[in-house]
Records
---
Amino acid sequence: MLTSTVCAAVSAAGLGIAALTAYRKRFLAATRIAAFALIPVGLVMTGVVDWVTSIVFKPTVWAGFGVLALSALLFAIGRFAERRRGISGRRERRAASGPGTQAVAPAASAPSLGAGRKAPKSTPAPGAEVAPKDDFSDIEAILKKHGI
């Protein structure tokens, strides 16, 4: 009941300010102020205010929020511990595997050219520039050109 009265008073004050603004020939601003002023009354009429006050003023609701926060904290701690254990577990597995372990097919990713075929040699055309060895040389040239 008290919240409904407060919302009605806030809306009345907002509509009064909107009327004064409209009196000063600022109709667009007055329209916006009136729109904002009607929101509290609309919330009271739809029952949202009663629902919110029943949530805010009940201790059991706040206890529920506390339990949810504790649950989130426990999830975070578990995740942190799992991540730490996962890193040390990988180190132990690498040490146990040793250097003697090899891939099943180490040359499987290499391209096969066939039994008697050789890779074609690429010769640059006469007058063509040879590609630079450094991948970033063209970027460096652009930066030097601009003085960076």
---
Amino acid sequence: MWLVFAAGAACCFGLRGILYQWTSRQPAERNTLLLGVYLCGAVISVILNAMLGQAWTSGAWAGVAMGFFSFVSNSAMHKGFAVGKASLVALLAGLPPLVVVLGALLLWGERLSLGQAVSFAVILGGGLLIKSAGGLSIRNMNGAQWGLLALVAFALTDLSSKQATLWGGETLPTLVLMYATGSLFFGLSAWAAAVRERHKAQAARASLETAASAGPAGYRSGWEESAVALEETAGGNRTPGWGRSKTMLVGMAVGITNITGMIFMMPAMRTGVTGLVSAIIALNALIIMLYARVVLREKLKPLELAGMAFSFGGVLALRLFG
């Protein structure tokens, strides 16, 4: 049954990746968007737990660690895409199962059978083929530090999820604390970004005022209009792209896929082998690839097709040996 839950999580996270890809091309402020994603998760998990009445146990506090590591991983991955080569960052961010398998062995003594180990290697190899098909070069390592940080943080999120189940944490209370923690950090980040924009606008206004005082008499009205426009933009009254309300609402819509994936992921971690669950969930890249091929009309490279075949073959082998 854990394989079904892990596959469900992979599908949800694949859809989330598609929506992330789409929103990344829109004029939306990243921290506000992700704040909406996490607020949605917090609200839905609170409502569901009020309906289902899952017990609040001490194990649920592992959700705080999950929220922090999730915040770090998402922020690092976005930063890596902004400053480095996308294929390198995606490759590194797709390797958490390697860390998860090692961590599960050291922390809980989890070992894979021979058949499971072969299946894991095939699935991971397929993922590597898919992610490295974009022309990754060892000479272009820009953004590698952010990709590595995302790798470790994603792995720690998975391990924290497993630890929550081992401590007896129920799914929904754990997710309430996870999303509340993530919302706090993204909220602080959005507030800090707004403060920086306000300071930039004030500095620009001071610069314009200085230039106006040294210029012709008729120049003053022009700088006043520019200064007002800068302050309105920084204050959120007028933005060149999406406003805060729209960005938050879109983020909350995207958050439905995220919370659904986590609801699938927690039971999978509870009953399955940690490293294998992480490997199956990492196959959400296949969903994104199909979207790129069908909707974005991107051509699939031979390595990507081979990676898809390897991944599906690994899942079938895991069904036989797991």
---
Amino acid sequence: MEIKNNIGFVTLLLTIIAGYCDTVTFVAADSIFSAHVTGNFIVFAYQFVKGSDMNAWIKLLTFPVFILAVIVGGRIAGKVLNHYTILFWEGLLLLLGGSIVAGLTYYGIFDKFMMYSVVMMTVFAMGLQNAFGKLYAKETYGPTTMMTGNVTQASLDFGTLLKTRFNNAEALTSLKKQLFLILGFLVGCFLGAFAGKQLGLWTLIFPGLTMMVCYFYHRKI
């Protein structure tokens, strides 16, 4: 089984999904980051010192869940020929998580325990995506779940272009790739913020469906 390789499309898709998931869980699920899990340390420390949230400790659980997901992603990669299988499982988790929220909300039995459970599923999904990016770095223009490194590289490239009066082809190409990543993530953040505020956590269905449809569309048997 082979995958049609389209680096630009895959990069845009993954950055939008990561930005979306990270923001929708933050907005709709007790200010928890699902992609930038280290950001939860800051939120936890703030809430702990402020004493405003007895459930703040749950944010620390995102870290071991993320680590476990990366380990699982590595195991998956070692057992399958199609490395996009990792993204299939990511999409399935997001679709399942959103469906659970929608179903339980419909029957009026969606509570905080289930909310945190779905958030951890989302964190796991983002961990799989992060593992994909590390294992198959050539499939995207750069990291798709965490933008700090991309912003740093973009700044270095821009500095080089200023120094050379925009006469450095390598730096210009690199800058375009970094901007592609950063802007894709930003678009995902806006979409996630709107969906999380207006509709809620069940909208994880959308990135889940998108990921799975895309997986099947891009494979050849």
---
Amino acid sequence: MEEKTVRTRYAPSPTGFMHVGNLRTALYEYLVAKSQNGKFILRIEDTDRERLVEGAVNVIYDTLELAGLKHDEGPDVGGNFGPYVQSERKDMYLPYAQQLINEGKAYRCFCTKERLEKLQNDNIGGGYDRHCRDLPQEEIDRLLEKGTPYVIRQKMPIEGSTTFKDAVFGEITVDNSELQDQILIKTDGYPTYNFANVIDDHTMGITHVVRGCEYLSSTPKYNLLYEAFGWEVPTYIHLPLIMGKDEDGNVSKLSKRHGATGFYDLINDGYLPQAIINYIALLGWCPKDNREIFTVAELEKEFDVSGISKSPSVFDYDKLSWFNGEYIKAMSEDEFTEAAMPYYKKVFGDKAMPYKKFAAILQKRTTQLTQIPEMLDFFAQLPEYGKELFVNKKSKTNLENSPVILKEAYERLKSMPKWTDTAIHDCLINMAAEKELKNGTVMWPVRIAAAGKTVTPGGAVEILDILGRDESLKRIEKGLEILAE
């Protein structure tokens, strides 16, 4: 018997927001397929008409592209199993529901909204009381003739239990008495999410279904549908929850109060798409060795379902920042400049700046691109500062020696014929040697005068080099004025 091609699908609803949980599901679906030479399919589930957001389908395309997850079939690339948009498949579902009615596995439910609401308020057994499950045929015909609106419900087994095997959580058994006669087709003729899902997965040849473990309890409902049609049940892979750290140290389901939870929100927070994907891959999956940095292509080779954990993973923003820092360090100068450019523009507008020199001082110090404006703002404008900044224990500088050192440095720098980083470096280091001072004792006052702040990317030499002769000397004069006050 020839082996079936592994086919997974990512089926988001176009609501305009990609949560990291959805993104991880997409990534694992992609990796399950690619690690076994399979196909990764994109299907747009837009049957929940109330939640649709204009332009949201493009957000899905853009996210997958940025994340490096290329789908083999989908609305934009086609394939043999289309259409790949659920609303374009809407005429497919009713005949399948009709088939189940004919076989006695489903029924029409004519209960009014009011009756169902009253039921819910009285809470009889926590759900629908199967009032229409055994209506006599003449009653059904009478209601149909009158044009009474109805939904189609599945006849669930009332006794026994349903067991299924999950690739991560093992065998799961649910008592059938807990399962309600679920609605398959709504009064508007549209299928419910669960019903459309099963029909679409089967007709698209999906072999592996990857989703969050919050769907574990509803899986028997899906399986009873597969069995009702006599179809092969797919392999289920349920993923652990993603949690966030609360302020009190406890964890709860990841939400906006923990920080950015959407893919684009994280990008706007200065994280690189490839760093986000790398980090998310390890949220709930462990490679065979302790390696941490993976490209998508490397993940395709390494990924194995057996490495998925059952226990929830905690989304750690510090760890994500570490990953991001590693990716930033590994960039070429040009790549870094391109990524940093929107942040440079926030500080300098369209003014030409020595971007190569910025890369040299920023790349190894940046863990989020959003840090760049704050790190560079003093180049655009010297901040207001007080003379207490010149005092530094470690560098052995105080308000007595700082004016003397700064004045001497100013005279030496001013008389330099060429303003280059090497010349500035040699000038200040030689001064320290001649005056028998620590290098830091000379560098600290110079850097404070040049930057007006204690924490800067790069030291005195790099800052003076970037500022240029005129601006540097002007700022040191200002520093001397502040010290003389």
